[in-house]
Amino acid sequence: MSHFLKRPKLSPIHKVLIAMYGTLFLLCAGLIAWQHYEKRQALYRETAVHLSNITALLAAQTDGDNIAMLVGKYRSPGLIIKNTQDAWYYVAQRSMRRVAEADHLSAPLRILAYDSTSGQVQTIVTSSDVPEFRAPFNDPTGLVTAMFPNAPSPQASGESESLSSAAPLIDRHGDLSGIVLAQVPKEEIEAEARVGLWRNILIMVAVFGIAALVLFRSAVKWIKQAEADRADLARRHEGITDSIAYAGKIQSALIPTPMSSVNSSNTFSC
Q1: How many domains in the chain?
Q2: Residue 124 belongs to a domain with what CATH number?
Q3: Which strands form 135-136's sheet, in the order they lie side by side?
Q4: CA 75 to CA 72: how far, in whole Å?
Q5: Is residue 106 part of a domain?
Q6: pLDDT digits over 96-147, tens only?
Q7: Mean pLDDT calculated for residue range 167-178
């Protein structure tokens, strides 16, 4: 039973091929991991620059006095229930919506302001179809809240699920009237990075398949050649052995042994 459980011995050629294949696999896996990391970091950098350009553009196009006017005119949440209710709100919303659609943003663009009465950062204008006027803005990292000088020191409550960029809105007096905020969910960036990762994995599988086929064919050729060489060497060895044995027989027949010479001498003397 133990005879059948024994693993077959690997030839040196098999061992070399396995070592080469394992080394190639480790190199490819390391290269893919490095490329995925670099691609992921590059996507985050590119997205951050893109969002920064968007917020800077909107901040330059939006009148800070109009935002201050909206905050002073509508002091309670929910007073603006549709985008066309107020002309200044509609102008800001349409401008933000065009930018959001042109840049294919899944998260709405926002203009935020700090309400000292409630002590909250609130959404004033959003690019979405449904107004969120004076809705509290969730700022888990506290980074947006920290941009308002009158706001208390924020307490970070966690990590944001979005990559954000903000630009200040300044009124004619040089005061901060609001902040333009653009966000992209981190899951979108991770999903794009995973697409590249799976593409690289598929490429590696294809390369490994081709490499395995080439190595397998080469191994079969090497093994056949090695077996042919061993068989040829065995035949030559057998021929040499036979020749030596035959020569020994001839030599034994032609040269008498000392015992046979003595017996022959005794015979003649008698």
Answers
A1: 1
A2: 3.30.450.20
A3: 135-136, 120-126, 110-115, 176-185, 162-170
A4: 6
A5: yes
A6: 999 999 999 999 999 999 988 888 899 999 999 889 999 999 888 888 888 8
A7: 92
